[in-house]
Amino acid sequence: MHNEALEPKITLNNDVKIPVLGLGVWKASNVEAADAVSLAISHGYVLIDTAKQYGNEQGVGDGIQDGLKVAGKNRDDLFITTKVYSGDQGYQASIDAIDGQLERLQTDHVDLLLMHWPVTDMYNETWRGMEEIYRSGKARAIGVCNFDVERLTDLLAQASVTPAVNQMEFNPLIHQQDVFELCQENGIQIEAWSPLGNGKLLGLPLLQEMATAHKKAPAQVILRWEVQSNVIVIPKSVHEDRIVENADIFDFSLTDDEMKQINQLNEEKHSRWYDDYQWYGNPAGDPNRIMKA
């Protein structure tokens, strides 16, 4: 199935184009990820987002192979993202880890490689390693995740390559406006993880009213708000009906007033499990504890 709306549309700061909506596979097992990725590709998805830390790169790779066969497409039709695991941070360690990740994903390059978390005293060296990966052609673009203003400012002062993307927690309840503005000033594209707020937003009366008015689901209203806010979204699902529904957001628009009303839901509160990642680093020095979830 061809869905032109899912084709690469946003141009990153290095001229690589990325779709505005894709599939996330956080918390999916290898088997679930393989099925979800294959289904998504068959329904026109191009952007697939995974991470070494998710433990499902192999399943994603299997799903890509299966999905490409079913859809009659090839690797170059997809936009594959994975991430540098915090246990692999550092200049040489990040370089050494990429080949294993590519092998599991069954490709010779990823379209976007992100640093999963800014581990204290390591992220600048990790970025230097990622710049080498970028120059080698094993990643068409590189970026970061979960960088706040302080750490992003520090990275930008030392980086040779400006991050193309900052993937961060973004949904109607948390906008991280200071980070958002810093990224805009530096030509860094925002990509939202947990765009639906772990489903906690779906019951909000405001969103339900808008969904009824547009004959859409609340999740579709949220994703549409994000896309109209110039944010890339990667909603996670392993269910075919949800995968299809999440992509069906390009035949309607929210009014300026509706956008403002959703903007006003902002509480700037991270989800409860955010701090479990210990994204600021781990004094105990155990890299496997840096990210629990």
TrEMBL record:
Its keywords, alphabetically, are:
NADP, Oxidoreductase
GO molecular function terms here?
Answer: oxidoreductase activity, acting on the CH-OH group of donors, NAD or NADP as acceptor
Active site per UniProt: 54
One Pfam family of this chain? Aldo_ket_red
Task: Indicate the segments forming the NADP-dependent oxidoreductase domain, all copies.
Answer: 21-267
Q: Which domain of life is it from?
A: Bacteria
Residues flagged as site, Lowers pKa of active site Tyr: 83
- Binding of substrate occurs at 116
Question: Could you say which protein family the record assigns here?
Answer: Belongs to the aldo/keto reductase family.
Q: Protein name, please?
A: Oxidoreductase of aldo/keto reductase family, subgroup 1
